[in-house]
Amino acid sequence: MENSSFPGNKTESLSPEQDSLSQGKAMPKTRTPPARPASLWHNRDFLLLWSGQIVSAIGSQVSLIAFPWLMLAITGSPAQAGLIAAMRTLPYLLFGLPAGALIDRWNRKRVMILCDTGRAFALLSIPIAFAFGWLTAAQLYLISCIEGTLFLFFGLAETAALPRVVSQEQLSGATAQNEFVYSVSGLLGPSFSGILYTIGNAMPFLADAVSYVVSVCSLLFIKTPFQQERTAAPRVGGDSSRASGQKSWMAYTGSGITLFFAFWRCW
Predict the structure, then answer these.
(1) For residue 137, what is the domain's CATH number?
(2) pTM greater than 0.90
(3) Whether residue 251 has pLDDT greater than 50
(4) pLDDT in tens, 216-231
(5) Residue 150 near residue 118 (C-beta atoms within 8 A)
(6) Which residues lie below 8 Å from residue 227, measured CB to CB, with a gap of 6+?
(7) How many independent structural domains does the chain possess?
(8) What is the DSSP string of 195-259?
(9) Residue 82: strand, helix, or coil
(10) Is residue 15 part of a domain?
(11) 115 near 153, Cβ under 8 Å?
(12) Domain limits at 187?
């Protein structure tokens, strides 16, 4: 007869863990689910950068559409209206290659602030000159080149700074949101440009200048550094490396000028 039949003889019930341990069996390890990455919309610095860029990107599209209209209104020449649109691509041919190397050396946040500040002053000069009757075709050509150059440096600095603002898990989402900004600006910019141009010929450029001021304010509130601290590396063959760097820059510039004039002859 089993011992459990006698009164007063208590048998202790073992838990599954204790029973497995008593039989020398190891308990299977439970896998903890991977931690979900923090939401991109909880990243304060990214929200500041993203909100500033969606405003300035729409402003850029507004002025981009309005440049040929204003040139046509001033000169009455469709050829010059088309040329000023092409002038904005000239900085990409001249400075596209060396700009990337320069951005890696410079302070990215400072570059972005200076670029947007310069673009704001350049665009603001158009409605001021238009109001006093001083606006000329040469000024529009110059401002179009300045706008294109600063846009190039700003875009490179923003692309390089994005991995510092967001984590590695958030980078793909942040890149997708940047593409969303470009899509929205391309959709809304022409519509806003037409509405503002009907109010006043210089209104699109005033709106674009204000959008750059908004972008500068958003950049000033970002606390995350846009690049790591760097230590100065010893120079090896300083004179020769400097000379080779100057030759490379001249080669880049020369090739850009050649491509521009080839494009100009075809156009």
Answers:
(1) 1.20.1250.20
(2) no
(3) no
(4) 999 999 999 988 766 5
(5) yes
(6) 107, 108, 160, 161, 164
(7) 1
(8) HHHHH-TTHHHHHHHHHHHHHHHHHHT--S-SS---PPPPPSSHHHHHHHHHHHHHHHHHHHHHH
(9) helix
(10) no
(11) yes
(12) 43-222
